[in-house]
Amino acid sequence: MNVTSIIHEALAQHRTRFAFELLPPLKGDGTSGVFGAIDPLMEFDPAYINVTFHREGIKQTQRPDGSVEWHVVRRRPGTVGISAAIRKRYDVEVVPHLICGGLSKYDIEDALIDMDFLGLHNVLALRGDKSQNERFFMPHPQGHAHAADLVRQIAAMNRGEFVDGEVEVCHHSKFSIGVAGYPETHEEAASPEADILHLKEKVDAGAEYIVTQLFYDNARFFDFVARCRAAGIRVPIIPGIKPLATVRHLKLLPETFGCRIPEELEREVLAHAGDKAAVRRIGTEWAIAQSRELIAAGVPVLHYYPMGKAENIIEIARTVF
Ligand code: FAD
Predict the structure, then answer these.
(1) The domain over range 3-243+301-308 is classified in CATH as 3.30.70.260
(2) Contact 49, 22 (CB under 8 A)
(3) Disulfide-capable partner of 97 in 39, 124, 144, 202 (CB 3.0 to 4.6 Å)?
(4) What does the alpha-carbon distance between residue 168 and residue 286 come to, in Å, rounded to a whole number?
(5) 249 lines ligand 1 (CB under 6 A)
(6) Which alpha helices (H) appear in the chain, and where do they start and end?
(7) How distant is the alpha carbon of residue 182 from its chain centre?
(8) Between the CA of residue 28 and those of 25, 33, 60, 88, 98, what are the distances in Å?
(9) Across all residues in the chain, what is the average pLDDT?
(10) Domain residues of the chain, as ranges?
């Protein structure tokens, strides 16, 4: 069963499933860190596990003569490989992410062919963020400018159309395709309306479900869903949840993910700013309350972002699922 079918099954059964997202190991690390993060979360019967995709970074060093040398560095390669390793070890559906940034259509096609051979039939199709040395996102000269174009490529491959044309005898891939959505509007969007129209473009291109950026105010998620439905987007929408865990998150999360922290949460965190454990508890309890309300609203899956720290996710899952 692929992830789209799992989501529809959860909707039909009026059951909310648990899912989470992991990062591939840092270059040079083995699989033990990732497996160590997954092991305690398996008790909650995840519907699937997502694995992020990281584009290259740029490192600057100075030569002895004072001139500057630029190096391309890949800190977290291996999304496809670690996804296959997770699927083999835990017998769970895995969703590797795939991005446009830094990749040509041919690189993308190669990755999809590898995924298909490895039994990975789910993909979250994303544009990716701009590279460290760019002011704006710059597509690869032979790549895609928007996630919708990546969705079109994957959907075309499912029909047997490859980048260089159709092949006569064709094994058709059957990728289930998810995309990202932004309850608080993507930072580069011309307007909230334009952002929703571009999201619809991804769905019209073949995306079967949407996973949202993290948010802390459920009202914003419900409003986003209503705006999507009004625009004719009918596919399931999966909310993304990350528990706030430190005082620093009050600034860092809005800066990084464009989400707003509700005043009530901010006030409570600041009132306990000197007590790390209390701040963590406040963030966890907030995420529990968010999760309960979303379950009551009938979402098929809750998509958690542990971001390297599983303890609070375990606590939330134990309370909620
Ligand atoms: P798009 O859908 O292409 O949208 C990007 C912007 O362009 C939006 O403002 C949109 O409104 C606008 N736009 C779209 N189409 C058009 C058009 N035709 N004309 C003009 N404007 C247009 N990043 C990673 O690098 N790796 C990951 O693994 C990863 N995982 C993620 C998982 C989730 C659930 C989410 C929500 C985000 C994830 N990201 C990841 C971050 C994501 O790559 C960034 O938010 C990125 O800036 C936008 O990606 P997108 O797929 O939403 O892009």
Answers:
(1) no
(2) yes
(3) 124
(4) 55
(5) no
(6) 3-12, 32-38, 79-90, 105-117, 147-158, 192-205, 218-230, 249-257, 263-271, 276-296, 311-320
(7) 11
(8) 8, 12, 21, 21, 21
(9) 95
(10) 3-243+301-308
Q: Please work out whether the CB of residue 189 comes within 6 Å of at least one atom of ligand 1.
A: yes
pTM of the model: 0.97
Ligand 1 pocket test target in 3, 23, 51, 127 with most atoms within 8 Å of CB: 127
Could you identify the atom of ligand 1 that is nearest to the CA of residue 178? 34
Query: Could you give the C-alpha distances from 144 to 33, 99, 104, 179, 257, in angstroms and in order?
Result: 33, 9, 7, 15, 22
Please indicate whether residue 72 or residue 16 has the higher confidence score (pLDDT). 16
In the numeric block, which tokens belong to residue 126? 């994303």
Contacts of 257 (CB under 8 A, 6+ apart): 213, 214
Question: Residue 285's pLDDT is what?
Answer: 98
pLDDT of residue 121: 98
307 Cβ inside 6 Å of ligand 1: no
pLDDT digits (tens, 9 = 90+) for 27-57: 999 999 999 999 999 999 999 999 999 998 8
Q: Residue 2: pLDDT band by 50, 70, 90 thresholds?
A: very high
Whole-angstrom distance, CA of residue 288 vs CA of residue 27: 34
Strand partners, 301: 17
**Residue type for 84, please?**
A
Summarised one tens digit per residue, pLDDT across range 264-303 is 999 999 999 999 999 999 999 999 999 999 999 999 999 9
Closest atom, ligand 1, to C-alpha of 146: 3
